[in-house]
Specification:
The chain is of the alpha/beta class. It folds into 2 domains: about 100 residues, 3-Layer(aba) Sandwich (Rossmann fold), CATH 3.40.50.170; about 110 residues, Rossmann fold. The protein contains 6 helices and 9 strands; from the N terminus they run E-H-E-H-E-H-E-H-E-H-E-E-H-E-E. Helix 1 crosses helix 6. It is globular and about 50 Å long. It starts with a strand and ends in a 15-residue tail after the last strand. The mean pLDDT is about 95.
Length: about 210
């Protein structure tokens, strides 16, 4: 069974979605460790409540990002981690971690990449006036929100939507996408081919966004 390490920095709603799917058996993976770079966050409590080991490694204790990532690598390897999952992790990943877990680091972003990279993606989408936004699970590379895309899920954006309402609907999609993507990896169904990810056997179906006339 695949052993997953999850990196968090905050409340851990995607972490909770993953824990729930492991608990109900729909995600056939083992969460070996949850690591936070910030102490006292809710995500650590969620992991502990599920009986998952946790560890805090504060990034402020390291002079360089590479040194921090080296500490992460050592901790994740000692926990037997095979796949690294970023779930609201607020640090940029360096080649130290990416090299240690080549093609085995994934992230979720609250937009349909390549649109609206970086911070506050939901606000960017609302301010731009798009009709559709969503979430993307992708492999991580050295560029921000750039690696090969695994799965995407869309949500409608209506004229009267706010950043809060869009954020809530995108989160619902995230909570379905991330466990599904982890299961695809666990089943050995993902193949990176340049910028594309082939999903052998077909990707799981997600409902299309419901659009209303303006």
């Amino acid at each position: 069974m695949l052993t997953v390490g999850i990196l968090i920095s905050g409340s851990g709603t995607n972490l909770q979605a993953i824990l729930d799917r492991v608990a109900d058996g729909s995600l056939r993976a083992r969460i070996g460790l949850v690591v936070s770079n910030r102490p006292g966050v809710l995500g650590l409590e969620r992991a502990a409540a599920a009986g998952v080991p946790t560890q805090v490694i504060e990034h402020r204790g390291y002079a360089r990002r590479e040194d921090f990532d080296a500490a992460l690598v050592d901790t994740l390897r000692r926990a037997g981690v095979e796949l690294v999952v970023l779930a609201g992790f607020d640090r940029l990943i360096t080649r130290v971690l990416l090299g240690a877990f080549r093609d085995r680091v994934i992230n979720i972003h609250p937009a349909l990449l390549p649109a609206f990279k970086g911070l506050h993606a939901q606000r960017q989408a609302v301010e731009y006036g798009v009709r559709v936004t969503g979430a993307t699970v992708h492999f991580v590379d050295e560029d921000v929100d750039h690696g090969p895309i695994i799965l995407q899920g869309a949500v409608a954006v209506d004229p009267d939507d706010t950043v809060d309402t869009v954020t809530a609907r995108v989160l619902e999609v995230e909570h379905r996408l991330y466990p599904a993507a982890i299961q695809l990896f666990a089943d050995g169904r993902l193949e990176i081919a340049g910028r594309r990810v082939r999903v052998h056997g077909g990707a799981p179906a997600l409902p299309p966004p419901q659009l209303r006339p303006w």
